[in-house]
Predict the structure.
Amino acid sequence: MVGIVIVSHSKQLALGVQELAMQMVQGTVALAIAAGIADPDHPLGTDPIQVQEAIASVFSDDGVLVLMDLGSALMSAEMALEFLPEAQRQKIHLCAAPLVEGAIAAVVAAAAGRNIHQVIAEAQGALIAKASQLGIDINANGHVTNPQPPANKEIRLTINNRFGLHARPAARFVGTSARFGAQIWVQNLTTGSSPVRGDSINQVATLGVRQGHEIAISATGNDADAALAALQALITNNFGEDDTIIPPPLVKNTVTPQSPSELSGIAASPGVAIAPIVHYQPSILTPTQYHVDDVETEWQRLQNAIQAAKQEIETLFSHASVQIGDAEAAIFDAHLLFLADPVLLEAVHHRISEEQINAETAWQLVVDEVASRYRTLEDAYLQERVDDVIDVGQRVLRLLTGTVGTVLDLQEPAILVATDLTPSDTVGLDPKKILGICTTSGSSTSHSAIIARTLGIPAVLGMDVQVLQVEDGTLMGLDGEIGRAWVEPEADILELLETKRQAWQTAQLSAKAKAQQPAITLDNRQVSVFANIGSIADVQAALSNGAEGVGLLRTEFLYLGRTSPPTEEEQLAVYQAIAQVLEQRPLIIRTLDVGGDKPLPYLRPQLIEANPFLGCRGIRFCLHHVELFKTQLRAILRASVGQNIKIMLPMIATVGEVKAAKAILSQVQSELCQADIPIAEAISLGIMIEVPAAVAMADQLAAEVDFFSIGTNDLSQYVMAGDRTNPQVTNLVDAMHPAVLRMVQQTVQAAHQAGIWVGLCGELAADPLATPILLGLGLDELSVNPPAIPTLKQSISQLSVVASEAIAIMALQQESVEQVKAIVSH
Ligand code: PEP
Ligand code: MG
């Protein structure tokens, strides 16, 4: 742990600072003072020998931070360094932070296990909170920031949603601001903050706006009125948040430990684990500063790294949305906004060009400043967002330095012990290998805790720091429900834990076993429950959650995170691997659905569309890029030998598109046959119904294909004429609207009249409230993200078709989403 030294002219002042600081961390940090001199008549002064002794008393390889009051205190500290051996001197850092605020920020960061550079950044950023309270906006270096142009329009509003402007609403605020040319500024009137830029995620999130706070939004520019109206609508709609969702009330376990081997923390994810521990120390990169002459090249290097980071995060996002569901995966959306934050980028650019320092150092300095801002916020939920800042910061740094991240390659199952885990670390964990998680920082609302709960890994966070001293391989028992862990538990405790673990595992297994059963209604109708997946890794998750097949393989993941499309061989390998794991269960491969909300810059470099959702996306794009389409079809057809693979076309609007796609498919089939390349004799072809025109023409389309799958995510936006990514119209674009449900009904009827089956693979299928309606409308198959399968199957088994049909008929007669929801909630 980092040690702290306070150097002051006055012993009383130093003792006071020490008392104040240590109170914050209950004495867990090594802090020494070197203050006053041994002259009873003139006690004020500083002594280099005392400083050297104080440093020695708290020295460790983690480093020492020295805070000084003024004048000769600095000289004494510098001289003290000269007395130390060279190897030690490197680890001592004299810090320019203010004494009182700096000391408090530094001990809190040291107690949380932060490294020396993070502790320095914390101390240096310690004045920010005070300054913002006084309406002075400064960055960690004391520079005044945010010169605001005069605004020509202003509105004042009260924030009503439960957690105020936390990460997601802040992201929506920024996303909305960014759509306008006007310059937007926002100010927290309740705390008296100074205005910050509305297009900066970090500035908006760190305004500390909570429920009930009044904010002022001002705008300058041609479309200022429109921008303010959009933001007003967003806020009036509570950012589209459902405030009935309250995070689980997880609290720090306050029971006094019974024995020295018993440790306590925050109960973050339920379940019991008994296993040897393994320490996980992701290497934290701390850049070395150097001078650069060519600042443009340096800036370009950073731009490239940011671009690569965006691609990595997009891939992570698509995996996470399958592994943990779309709502939780939205965490990574905030990471993308961070990388696009203009204020952050301007600050880094400024440092590179003005200070002529390397990109790594400039980036890290600015990231540390942003992290400090989050840490100084009063709101615990917002403070937790600092994990995300560090996570993205390290990702870019890794890419800049060409460093490979720490890989956790476990031979045996274990309990993971770490000071902290980033969301990226946690989402990559394999629940079969990681039986439990124990960290010394974090809280129940941290994204890592949320992910651990979704993955079903028992976790205790905010654990006593002694756990870091326990050796690798030591047996630990961990109870994530009560937030306790035992190191080498005694026989009686072990026995109790074992019993609890078995009961927990049995409950889990029975839930999973039930999910392996077919979903059959009370009156004996079976509905196929399939999974939506976006990678090879997701197939296992799908099967263990009870998927009976894959209803939607979003093949976009193959095209993400790279600079050219995947080859036929690459695609073939992936499709074959997925089909093999599925062991003859159906695998519906959707052909590339690029465009709209899924841009792929290398495929469409020059194409700028005013309305991408109404533009050249999905099948339209493939019919314009026949070679690319043929490559994918060849790979699918080759993978289909001996497997149960079906092809599905996205965004079909006309019969002509289906005919054109079929013509290309049969051309590819004959080319492969002529070349003696084996393919399945026949392959089912289906289409997604996600455009109103397709619903209207469903009877004719049904004559052309073998099945339909309704994509309500897109269908709702096209039926309601509301962009699915625009928060202002979130309430309008709801698949539970009777207008959308009537479209579903029409499609099902057309399909059944033509004798083909029809499924639904939009998010609506995963909404438990929608299950009786979808059952009543007669869908044959529902396809959802893997974690949603057990609940969906359970709901189906508790419903009857007869009762569901009555509910569906009523739902179709309602006027609004609210009325439909009221019917199914009762
Ligand atoms: C849909 O539109 O409902 C759908 C499942 O496809 P995507 O979300 O990939 O556009
Ligand atoms: Mg779609």
